[in-house]
Amino acid sequence: MHCLFIEYIGQQLTTYCTENNVFVAVFAYLWLSLSREIYLTTRQLNVYRSAKLVPKELRPDFDLKTFNKCIQYNSLRLRVWIVADVYHHLLTAFVLWFQVIPLLWRISDQLLPPLGFAANNELIQTLVFVTIGSLLSTIADLPISLYRTFVVEQKYGFNKQTIGFYAKDRLMKFVVMQTIVGAVIGAAVYIIQNGGQYFGVYLWLYSFAVTLFLMTIYPDLIAPLFDSFTPLPDGQLKTSIERLAESIDFPLKKIYVIKGSKRSAHSNAYFFGIYKNKQIVLYDTLFRDFHTNKRQKGTKSADTSESSSHQKMGCTDEEIVSIMAHELGHWYLSHALKYLAVAETVLLVYITLYSMLYQNEVLFSAFGFEDKRPVFVGLYLMFRFVFWPLNDLLWFAFMCLSRRFESGADAFEKSMKKGPHMRSSLIRLFMDNLGSPVNDNLYSAWNHSHPTLLQRLKAFKTD
Predict the structure, then answer these.
(1) Distance between CA atoms of 146 and 457, rounded to whole angstroms?
(2) How many angstroms separate the CA atoms of 267 and 283, rounded?
(3) Residues 6 or more apart in contact with residue 399 via CB below 8 angstroms
(4) Is 410 a catalytic residue?
(5) What is the CATH number of the domain that holds 265?
(6) Which of 256, 267, 270 is nearest to 227 (CA)?
(7) What residue ranges are annotated as transmembrane (predicted)?
(8) First CA to last CA across the chain, in angstroms?
(9) Are residues 253 and 360 in the same domain?
(10) Which of 185, 201, 291, 412 is 20 to 30 Å from 212 at the Cα level?
(11) Catalytic annotation, pick one of 319, 327, 413, 432
């Protein structure tokens, strides 16, 4: 029955979808996607241009200078972002129009003999293809990444990287990512080629197992490759966090401080690990002591005429505990498990759709593959282009879900009775990271994973 259904779907697609129609639809949606992003971004930029006064809800905490600095920083970031988005859409149009993907596939095949492999070895050819594609993508993204890091972030005092550190960090991430991706993709191709009529089930089970495996090894094997994790020293803060974790039966094993300041002045806090191996990570830039010591050593910020609010960068111990109450709220409310369940359900739907289409000649020929239907290329073309509208709908759905979860974590933090520290910690994080103080509703609905600052403050205030 399963095979007959898949065959029926394939016949219907062959009847109604020509290769020209598929290509035109994908190409048209590319420009529709870009138009949507330009429209939403323009709306948000107009909000920034019209923002002349601090909203009354923020006046107890924001002076006009800090407010304007937030507006200027986010305006610049958004202008760079839309230039990058136009650039990436143009690159995608170039790749589709000039059939770059089948060209790279042929080049990958030609490289096999010089690398010591037999020609037409699809598994090895796939790994070469992925490596070349990733390398070209990284190079294409480099100008935008450099400008964001060494112009935008540098201008507002966030960037702490040298060119040398940046290059080394990017290279390390590329090598590690290619190693992991190569192993994962190689096994996936093998499953599709040898899994028979139930390969979709096997592929989904494999994907789920890989997700759990990476979640398990990340804390001990992957994360330390990029950052040094130092145990939080004994003291009042550590004791308070441990008491908080104990009060809700959070299986805390370790609390680390990560030297985020070697890359950026942005601050953050999170936890990771599965089952009983939970570990909390605090960025060093989160601590008020870090910024106090920095000033005492004579280090200047990008803004030499700092406001009094800027002089108080970093959070107090009480504010950090309040932040962790929010983070642990995600665990208490099982948000990670719910995310995983939703994501795996979506993946199962995608794999089912792929199993119906992966041998369809029309879909391959629409993208320039006339005589070959490589497994991974089909997977990429469908997930990236054929399912593009569905991807966007899911993006919006996940943003809505994320905002709902963040509101739930805020409510949990409030239930822990952190009092004034809820507001002060949120404001402090927001000001230290120069968040967006005013937002267009449509732009925020599409792009923001968190409720806006004003929405969160209103929720804190409501009894």
Answers:
(1) 35
(2) 6
(3) 445, 446, 447, 448, 449
(4) yes
(5) 3.30.2010.10
(6) 256
(7) 86-107, 127-150, 171-192, 198-218, 336-357, 377-398
(8) 56
(9) no
(10) 412
(11) 327
**Domain check: are 387 and 284 in the same one?**
no
Q: What is the pLDDT of residue 303?
A: 45
Query: pLDDT tens across 302-336, in order?
Result: 443 344 444 568 899 999 999 999 999 999 999 99
Q: What is the mean pLDDT of the chain?
A: 90
In a domain, 156, yes or no: no
Per-residue pLDDT for 275 more than 90?
no
Q: Residue 360 domain-assigned? A: yes
C-alpha to C-alpha distances, 461 to 57, 397, 414, 416, 458, nearest whole angstrom: 11, 27, 10, 15, 5
Tokens of 142: 């480099």
Is 327 part of the annotated catalytic residue set? Answer: yes
More confident residue, 452 or 217: 452
The catalytic residue among 410, 413, 432, 440 is 410
Same domain, 463 and 337: yes
What would the pLDDT profile of 77-128 be if each residue is shown by its tens digit?
Answer: 999 999 999 999 999 999 999 999 999 999 999 999 999 998 889 999 999 9
Of 247, 279, 314, which residue constitutes the final position of a domain?
Answer: 314
Q: 266, 284, 314 — which closes off a domain?
A: 314
Domain containing 13: what range? 1-60+333-463
Would residue 139 count as lying in a domain? no
What pTM does this model have? 0.89
Please choose, from the candidates 157, 148, 461, the residue with its C-alpha nearest in 3D space to the C-alpha of residue 305. Answer: 157
Task: State the binding site.
Answer: 326, 330, 406
Q: In the block, which residue shows the tokens 């507006």? A: 71
Which residues are part of a known binding site for Zn(2+)?
A: 326, 330, 406
